[in-house]
Amino acid sequence: KTLLCQNWDLFAQLMREDPSTIKGAEALMLGEMLTLPQNFGNIFLGETFSSYISVHNDSNQVVKDILVKADLQTSSQRLNLSASNSAVGELKPECCIDDVIHHEVKEIGTHILVCAVSYTTQYGEKLYFRKFFKFQVLKPLDVKTKFYNAETDEVFLEAQIQNITTSAMFMEKVSLEPSMMYNVTELNTVTSGEDGESTFGKMSYLQPMDTRQYLYCLKPKPEYAEKAGVIKGVTVIGKLDIVWKTNLGERGRLQTSQLQRMAPGYGDIRLSLEMIPDTVNLEEPFDIICKITNCSERTMDLVLEMCNTRSIHWCGVSGRQLGKLSPGAFLSLPLILLSSVQGLQSISGLRLTDTFLKRTYEYDDIAQVCVVCPYTNNEC
């Protein structure tokens, strides 16, 4: 055992010194030295289990009606993997029957490959034997997700993917398949467009126990964007599709179950901003456009009040009637205001009153705007 460990350490050193391998990825890249697995005992969820089965006639007699059956026993089911369930007529001495089976592994835990062979001797005696091959299916990746609900109905998904195997893996694809109500944009490239470079660099491999963070933006499709009540209640976002390759090029694939977010609570009325400038001049009026959506199941008759704050001053008539707003409907409301204080200022002071129920909804810290002085420091 000590000799084997020393030889393996020597081989690992040779791999690191091999100029045809990539620094930091010696175990992943083959280079000029083909590294075969040290043993077989584990396979990872999402990979394809392949096995070559050979039944050889070691005797000096011809046997007939040979039936080879390969089953895979998991913790929950027994699967038949044989390519053919028909018997072979005869098998001469020193001849063999070969078969290759494949199965995409979809369960973790202990798996047992059961190979059963039945045949008839030349004297008419029917014989039967079985062989068992046990292996473990392990979890290759640890996936954690976080959701961020934006005011514009956009949903940002952060996916943290960790390699929990003992070898590096090449991340071929990590994509998000959105649900029917959303379009998705991947935010994992430095520049936009098809030629955008990945934020993880050109070598997209993940070392053991390393973690990557992927970011996606989901926007409601146009036909659903205006239906506030529908989007409000949507919890199913989509599922992640992850494809990787191991150091011998074996491909694995995992799809998560449908990812669900906590539906945001907007209350009866939702107020959001459709348009606001990033930077405005001190004591100069600027325009914003507010979007008011009725998220309740009843019609509202709304009145708008605008309350000045220490730095924000509204221009226009306060207490004006906005009219009736039916359930799920919205209206766009242009407003004018100015700031008397420099710096990053919060827009606050809007009040909406439903005259039917005599209920007032207050909206403060709706957004922030940067207020700058257009003159020199002395003039400000």
From TrEMBL:
One Gene Ontology CC term in the entry: TRAPPIII protein complex
Annotated ranges, domain Trafficking protein particle complex subunit 13 C-terminal: 277-371
Trafficking protein particle complex subunit 13 middle domain sequence ranges: 141-264
Family annotation (Pfam families): TRAPPC13_C (PF23643), TRAPPC13_M (PF23647), TRAPPC13_N (PF06159)
Alphabetized InterPro entries for the sequence: TRAPPC13 (IPR010378), TRAPPC13_C (IPR055428), TRAPPC13_M (IPR055429), TRAPPC13_N (IPR055427)
Trafficking protein particle complex subunit 13 N-terminal domain boundaries: 8-137
Subunit structure: Part of the multisubunit TRAPP (transport protein particle) complex.
Family stated for the protein in its record: Belongs to the TRAPPC13 family.
Protein name: Trafficking protein particle complex subunit 13
Source organism per UniProt: Sander lucioperca
Gene: trappc13
